[in-house]
Write a structure and sequence with these properties.
This protein is mainly α and about 220 residues long. It contains 14 helices and 2 strands; from the N terminus they run ββαααααααααααααα. A hairpin with a 2-residue loop joins β1 and β2. The longest helix is centred in the middle third of the chain and has 19 residues.
């Protein structure tokens, strides 16, 4: 029988080692992506909409900090609600995205943000709480221009703290991060590792670990794994 490293079984952290990995990850992900963008997430129309816009931005092949900066710029320009986004001109949206450094996809994204805002106004009066009442909210999200499967997952990861029926929401990318850190690959088991208030931050941290190998290695080193 081969000797396994202390605190691990078949490459997976166990017991105290698992707790150390989770603790080290949360220390390196002190805030969710919406919080980094200055969004005070509550179950009210404006922050829910801002979180959906951020999910749109994060779902592109672009650095997370650039998407966060673009979200901040859109909000600073007054585009905090579906109505305000729809009322803004295409050029105003492009300019705000550019201010946030989101230049590679700025023109297409400006178009999609306008179309998405119009759809949300038409179907839900701009209030995503009405979308929540749909039989399949994730499917309803996919109907919003600019929101594909990745964007829907990002949004639901971050709103699970206020839309608790989705918790624990740990999608495939979060599970990839869990595997990299030697944590369970089951969303249910992962959800047991942190309290409900930390689930959105934990989910974002796992995704961060999936996308950033040096971060994952830093977490494992800090946890003594």
């Amino acid at each position: 029988m081969t000797t396994k490293s202390r605190g691990k079984r078949d490459g997976k952290a166990t017991g105290p080692a698992r707790e150390a990995v989770v603790r080290a990850l949360l220390q390196r992900q002190p805030r969710t992506y919406p919080a980094q963008a200055g969004i005070r997430l509550r179950n009210t129309p404006a922050p829910l909409y801002q979180t959906l816009v951020l999910a749109n931005l994060l779902s592109a092949r672009i650095r997370a900090d650039t998407a966060v900066a673009a979200s901040r710029a859109l909000n600073a320009a007054g585009m905090r609600t579906a109505r305000a986004m729809a009322d803004a001109t295409w050029q105003q949206r492009v300019d705000a995205l550019g201010e946030g450094g989101y230049r590679r996809y700025d023109e297409r994204t400006a178009t999609l943000l306008g179309e998405g805002a119009e759809l949300l106004l038409e179907r839900y009066g701009g209030d995503l709480r009405r979308l929540r009442e749909e039989a399949d909210p994730r499917k309803a999200l996919l109907a919003v221009p600019g929101i594909g499967p990745t964007g829907a997952d990002i949004f639901l990861r971050d709103v699970q703290g206020v839309w608790t029926e989705f918790a624990p929401y740990l999608d495939g990318k979060a599970v990839d991060g869990a595997r990299r850190l030697g944590l369970p690959a089951s969303p249910g088991r992962l959800g047991e590792l942190v309290g409900a208030e930390d689930l959105p931050r934990f989910a974002d941290g796992l995704v961060h670990a999936a996308l950033d190998t040096p971060l994952a290695e830093e977490v494992l080193a800090a946890a003594g794994s």
